[in-house]
Amino acid sequence: MSMQKLEAPTTLALIPLAWGEDALEATLAAQQSVVAANGGHCEVILLGAEGHDIACERAAQAGATRIWQVTHADLAGNDDMAALAMAASQALHQPLAERGAQTLVLLPPGIAGEELAARLAHLLSGHALGRCARLHWQNEAWVVERVTWGGRMRLSMRVESGLCFACLRGGRANFANSEPAQVTNTALVGGLPALMALDRRPTGQHLPPLDGAKLVVSGGRGVNERGFELLETLAVALGGTLGGSLPAVDAGMVPVMRQVGVSGKFVSPAIYLAVGISGTPQHLAGINPQTRIVAINTDVGADIFNVADVGVVADWNLLLPELLGVIKAQALI
Fold first, then answer.
1. Core vs surface per residue 182-212: b (16+ CB within 10 A) or e
2. pTM of the predicted model as reported, rounded to 2 decimal places
3. Topology, domain 11-187
């Protein structure tokens, strides 16, 4: 006799309206993928300074059976995460009271969504699942898959009780549903935390940040100060930015904000030029597996050549000036 598969609990999507259309659609797409794989119903909480009819309509078209439009006047022009988290925890009070203890709450995918998920888990004594690759309802528990080490490993977790706060990318949302949704409008009362006072100072950095860069020129232990000057010139000439490995940061060649790896930044450029980098797992964990790696190293046995799309066994002292000369001849610098 086959066992009947139990349908997953209702999935809630909490979407700050100030984060825009992309955040709205990405969260609705993630919610659709969870419901398609596990069953259950989906409800949406739209949080902002005022109601938003278009967002409400999009949530209904995405299949939400119930939509909570929750407003707080103090959210207008307030992008402080602590204030948003406080408002979001209040917005969740009524929906969670009606749903039960194993509710899954989806936040917009991305760094901001992951931070909001963690803050809500703290405020509401839940589980912060972070950036998930898959969410599966199995034997009355959520089984969570997470990608780590730059996509080279997967972790599996099982959550049998409590609230879960997660981010998930689910492709493109389908807005074909024509069934109406029940809409509940709620205005929150009470003050939110005051904006954090920030002291802004120039960093002296003129290069673009690593986040979102299409080309990263990165140096490692085998590159000295002169070499990093050449790498920076090369990055500027090619419209990219500069990175470095942990040994390069420890040696003072690049600031820690430009460190790539498990203890630094995760980057997803189209091309990653690794110069004098051996290719340890800790460094490779900071590079998207879909990124094309071009490696320059004097050691023919360096591990970086095992993952590089293009490998050059050469001394950067000789190769980089020649490369810059070619670029200069083509009037790129």
1. ebeeeebeeebeeeeeeeeeeeeeeebebee
2. 0.68
3. Rossmann fold (3.40.50)
